[in-house]
Write a structure and sequence with these properties.
The chain starts with a helix and ends with a helix. It is α/β, with parallel strands linked by helices. Helices cover about 50% and strands about 10% of the residues. The protein is globular. It folds into 3 domains: about 100 residues, Orthogonal Bundle (Helicase, Ruva Protein, domain 3), CATH 1.10.8; about 170 residues, P-loop containing nucleotide triphosphate hydrolases (Rossmann fold, 3-Layer(aba) Sandwich); about 80 residues, Winged helix-like DNA-binding domain superfamily/Winged helix DNA-binding domain (Arc Repressor Mutant, subunit A, Orthogonal Bundle). Helix 4 packs parallel to helix 5, helix 10 crosses helix 11 and helix 14 runs antiparallel to helix 17.
């Protein structure tokens, strides 16, 4: 029996390692039917020689926004030449030239020279090719909040949406994706842009645990051989993923837990494999979320973690407000704004407690010692 359970050096648990890559497009997109239908309806006028409509896709990180757009754009490319869909990662491309170089490459078929080409010439050639193809431009600006931070969002939207005024093309559409729930992309631009930018807001809520189990179950079946992840291990991964509200964490946990088992020469993933993987994956997630906070928000998070370590402390919103005034003196409005930001960042949960006069309980979503260590590390880095 032991002989059959041992994995030989030349064997693997992975049927297809690519299934766990960030760029992988799943065979079926679960629990985003409503969003993909709404975006398809916004693109549909372009199939009747009209112009695609615009949208703002909002929701916490890792809730399927990018995958939904990429799936829709892939279907458009397979079925019609009347729409030219262009996906742009704004973490990587934050300048007008970089964005229009992506549009140029998608429309013309090759990248413009990195030097020697003026932005106006790149725009002219791309627009000329769109006119020749009689195709409507539909641009996805993924992580458009990075353009806002770089002070490029207003200018880029203006250039894209008003392309039809200078060239013989249909009015383009823009799907702008943002995971920053504090930012309203529509109000962040000026009146010149708002006069042509009339987006529909499409919201992506976090996945429920049952939805997470289905999504991860598909990845396990496609990427690993049968029985590699027992039900108990799969449930543990789903629990950890639901706590993080980040489907990417779950996919990475499956991959790394399987790699741990394979490295140990075992045919199945154990609880220890999953927990070892979680320590490697979840700690950087906490670090990134804490780093995205401002100083006041991070100070409140630190004090909440300190209070959680004391088992006799009441962790309601009102009690925490009173307890933190000695360290972080601020008004009730500022406190509520910061607390809401911690919830949006996936660092705390704020369930309603009707037994306490409809007050909210504050539940830390990470171990308090991990939170304290993350905040202290960020503080040292900032001071260096």
């Amino acid at each position: 029996m032991r002989q059959r359970e041992t994995l030989r050096y030349d064997q693997t648990l992975f049927r297809d390692h690519e299934v766990f890559e960030f760029t992988y497009m799943p065979d079926e997109l679960h629990h985003r039917d409503a969003q993909i239908r709404e975006l398809a309806l916004l693109a549909r006028p372009a199939l009747r020689s009209g112009s695609p409509r615009s949208a703002i896709l909002r929701g916490p990180p890792r809730t399927g926004k990018t995958t939904t757009v990429r799936r829709l754009f892939a279907e458009i490319e397979e079925t019609t030449q009347q729409i030219a869909p262009v996906y742009i990662n704004c973490k990587q491309h934050r300048t007008p030239f970089a964005v229009f170089a992506c549009i140029f490459e998608a429309v013309v078929g090759y990248a413009p020279p990195a030097t020697g080409k003026h932005l106006d010439e790149v725009v002219r050639v791309a627009a000329k090719r769109l006119g020749e193809r009689e195709a409507a431009l539909l641009v996805c600006l993924d992580d458009a909040n990075y353009l806002h931070e770089a002070r490029q969002l207003n200018d880029l939207l203006y250039r894209i949406l008003r392309l039809y005024e200078a060239w013989d093309v249909r009015k383009p559409g823009v799907f702008a994706i943002s995971s920053d729930l504090r930012l309203n992309l529509y109000t962040a631009v000026d009146e010149r842009v708002r006069s042509v930018f009339h987006p529909t807001e499409v919201f992506f809520s976090p996945y429920a645990k049952s939805e997470i189990q289905e999504i991860l179950g598909d990845r396990i079946r496609q990427g690993l051989y049968p029985n590699v992840v027992p039900k108990a291990s799969a449930n543990l991964i789903a629990d950890l993923t639901a706590k993080e509200q980040d489907i990417r964490v779950g996919i990475d946990l499956v991959r790394m837990a399987a790699e741990n088992a394979e490295g140990a020469g075992r045919r199945t993933v154990t609880r220890k494999d999953v927990m070892d993987a979680s320590r490697t994956i979840i700690t950087p997630t906490l670090q990134k979320r804490a780093a995205d906070l401002n100083e006041g928000e991070r100070a409140l998070l630190y004090r909440i973690a300190e209070m959680v370590q004391k088992t006799d402390v009441t962790m309601t919103s009102g009690a925490v407000f009173e307890a933190t005034q000695e360290y972080i003196p601020n008004g009730a409005t500022t406190y509520r704004t910061r607390l809401k930001r911690l919830e949006e960042a996936g660092l705390v949960d704020l369930p309603l407690r009707t037994d306490r006069g409809r007050t909210r309980e504050i539940l830390l979503r990470f171990a308090p010692d991990q939170v304290l260590a993350a905040c202290e590390k960020i503080g040292k880095t900032s001071a260096a």
